[in-house]
């Protein structure tokens, strides 16, 4: 990864005894932030841990020296340095005098999103989640550059605290050709989001730190206008958003629903359950676990529904190694924290959901093909790569074929399979089961493999 930083522009504004130590420090490139508090020794926080910078304690004069050399503090107590990405946040006493400063080092890092480049090209709205300091702002800055420069889309950045494009009327080069709209006060962010769509015709809007109900509502409004969104919010995972009522609208909103007796019996649940109210404003969600390890929810709608049911969902883990090689793994996530259902049978619910995807189900004569884990699959109208990879990881020997007579299974998208009457007639003629996959849903493919495993065991008995 290439890094572009203007660390010297920050260091030259620091008191001499702090600057002198940092200029010659061996771990200067690993510096995260500098902490300056009245009456305490100055401290630098590196990736490897904190270090004191001097034996001298900070005085009022030291704080005054720094604050006079940087930009003015906004109503959210943040300031910056002209044409840099550094952020200085202040702590005030009861008389509103500044008695503490946190100098966050801003870096434009080129290359951290190489492992999710395919997700950007899907043109779907993406929500990034992660704890403070994990690098969400750095990532969406790089996303803005890639989408505007390499994908040549019209990008508007709603930059509330000038963290994405720097503290200047001229935005930092790290955002590429993307345009930046500054926000005068944090409480006005939702208005600027709507204004960006109405006045400047963007194809993509990028928002950092969506944190209020009004901002979540504005994000939904933008999504309904057909504009792609890339946003960040605090929270380690999707479950945090379900528990956060002001932000739950980002993932469709959560409501209590009372079912009829017959419906509750059919579902195998209690009468009062939690359900998603509407479509999510974001179709993709990325949980930033660590700097080089991300959890991908490829279909937020399905993930939220499964979490609310207390069912398991399959998530994708992408890890970027030091040699810039991306490793993709799949993990089963099980939760019951949002389910109101007691004595709930996951097996019953999964099989019910699974049967809905069969167009032409497996017949007894087809079970003879399952005595070995060799699958001759005819894939219609969808990309075979994901299906092939998942079935292979589940230890099936997958052979993609175009000869219908040799086929064990036909997999395709529901709309295309519905249109192809000839293919459906051939499947009936040769007793070939057809399974429909919606948007490459991994959950459905895993269920398919489990069904084959069960059928194979029954056929051998």
From TrEMBL:
SUPFAM superfamilies in UniProt: P-loop containing nucleoside triphosphate hydrolases
Coiled-coil ranges (or none): none
Transmembrane regions listed in the UniProt entry: none
UniProt-recorded name of the protein: AAA+ ATPase domain-containing protein
Keyword tRNA processing annotated: no
Database matches in InterPro entries: AAA+_ATPase, P-loop_NTPase, PTPase_dom, Spore_III_AA_AAA+_ATPase
Stretches assigned to the AAA+ ATPase domain: 122-261
Pfam families (alphabetical): PTPase, Spore_III_AA
One Gene Ontology molecular-function label: ATP binding
Record's keyword terms, sorted: ATP-binding, Chloroplast, Nucleotide-binding, Plastid
Source organism of the structure: Pseudictyota dubia
Source domain of life: Eukaryota
UniProt key word GTP-binding: no
């Amino acid at each position: 990864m290439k890094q572009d930083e203007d660390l010297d522009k920050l260091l030259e504004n620091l008191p001499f005894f702090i600057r002198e130590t940092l200029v010659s420090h061996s771990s200067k490139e690993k510096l995260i932030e500098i902490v300056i508090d009245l009456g305490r020794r100055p401290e630098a926080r590196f990736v490897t841990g904190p270090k004191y910078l001097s034996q001298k304690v900070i005085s009022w004069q030291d704080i005054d020296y720094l604050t006079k050399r940087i930009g003015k503090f906004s109503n959210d107590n943040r300031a910056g340095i002209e044409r840099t990405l550094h952020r200085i946040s202040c702590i005030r006493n009861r008389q509103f005098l500044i008695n503490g400063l946190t100098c966050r080092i801003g870096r434009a890092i080129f290359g951290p999103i190489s492992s999710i480049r395919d997700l950007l090209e899907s043109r779907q709205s993406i929500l990034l989640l992660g704890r403070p300091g994990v690098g969400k702002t750095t990532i969406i800055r790089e996303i803005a550059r890639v989408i505007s420069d390499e994908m040549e889309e019209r990008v508007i950045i709603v930059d509330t605290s000038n963290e994405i494009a720097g503290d200047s009327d001229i935005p930092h080069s790290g955002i590429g050709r993307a345009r930046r709209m500054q926000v005068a006060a944090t409480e006005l962010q939702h208005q600027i989001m709507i204004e960006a769509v109405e006045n400047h015709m963007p194809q993509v809007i990028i928002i950092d730190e969506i944190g209020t109900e009004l901002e979540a509502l504005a994000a939904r409004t933008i999504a309904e206008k057909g504009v792609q969104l890339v946003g960040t919010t605090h929270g380690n995972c999707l479950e945090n958003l379900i528990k956060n009522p002001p932000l739950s609208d980002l993932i469709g909103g959560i409501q209590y629903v009372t079912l009829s007796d017959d419906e509750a019996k059919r579902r195998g649940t209690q009468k009062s359950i939690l359900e998603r109210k509407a479509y999510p404003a974001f179709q993709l969600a990325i949980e930033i676990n660590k700097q080089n390890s991300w959890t991908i929810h490829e279909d937020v709608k399905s993930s939220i529904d499964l979490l609310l049911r207390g069912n398991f969902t399959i998530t994708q883990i992408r890890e970027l190694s030091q040699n810039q090689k991306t490793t993709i793994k799949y993990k089963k996530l099980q939760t019951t924290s949002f389910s109101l259902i007691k004595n709930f049978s996951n097996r019953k619910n999964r099989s019910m959901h699974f049967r809905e995807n069969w167009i032409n189900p497996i017949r007894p004569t087809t079970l003879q093909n399952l005595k070995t884990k060799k699958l001759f699959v005819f894939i219609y109208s969808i990309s075979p790569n994901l299906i092939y990879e998942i079935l292979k990881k589940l230890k099936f020997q997958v052979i993609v074929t175009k000869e219908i007579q040799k086929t064990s299974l036909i997999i395709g998208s529901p709309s295309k399979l519905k249109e192809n009457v000839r293919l459906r007639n051939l499947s009936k003629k040769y007793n070939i089961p057809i399974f429909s996959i919606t948007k490459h849903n991994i959950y459905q493919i895993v269920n398919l493999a489990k069904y084959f495993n069960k059928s194979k065991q029954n056929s051998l008995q």
